[in-house]
Write a structure and sequence with these properties.
about 260 residues; alpha+beta; 3-stranded antiparallel β-sheet; two-stranded antiparallel ribbon
Length: about 260
Amino acid sequence: MSYLERHTEERFSPSLLVPGTKAIISLAISYNPGLLPTQKALAWYAQGTDYHTVVREKLQKLMKSLRLEGRAFTDTAPVLEKYWAWRCGLGFIGRHTQLVIPSFGSAYFLGEIFVNQQCDRYDSPINPSFLADECGSCRLCEEACPTGAIANRCLDARKCLSYLTIEHRGDLPEWAGECLKGCFYGCDRCLRACPHLCAEKVQIPEEFRAKDCLLRMTESEWRTLSREKYEQLFQGSAVKRAKYEGLRRNILAAFN
């Protein structure tokens, strides 16, 4: 993910990204399906409409309703999303390196609004340090990771199934196929193992619910996925990030 090396100054100086920025509003929108049906072959976040579109539209509506001036982002610009969410008091950084919202977990999309107005009140982090260990002796996320990508509060992307099935270009490592276990796009295992994840009383936007066409897909249908079917299933979906060739590569590895 070489793009992370670019725009370093903007990442650390929001006013360079959006001139005139005086405050940052951080928000989280759940994609936790709770007791809703899901397609086991795909990570939860990828089973509905592309979150970039959905979250950005919701942020823009919020800005309009509050008469805010600035710009809204969701994983679309050099923004330190987890840092600002921590600064705004939304949660803490878990052992799996994701933001954990107490009693809700990590199944959330983050979004930010950079505004050119001062706020009348500012929230504070729930712990004094960005790297404070709030997980204590819990190692459930580490134990749930099939590749050992999580260790010592660090994530090795070279071993992470989410990275390998979405961002990685080229052949998958030989050992990856056995670890996929039928889930060929992304991986939710660490966030599902977190004791903060709430399976009940969660509400997600209709756009993030698994599409019926995805729920009906079987292993045999995935194995024979055509480009035409791919376009039909994933129109307006974040899965397009991996492209058809990448998804076919993952499918063959997962069901080998």
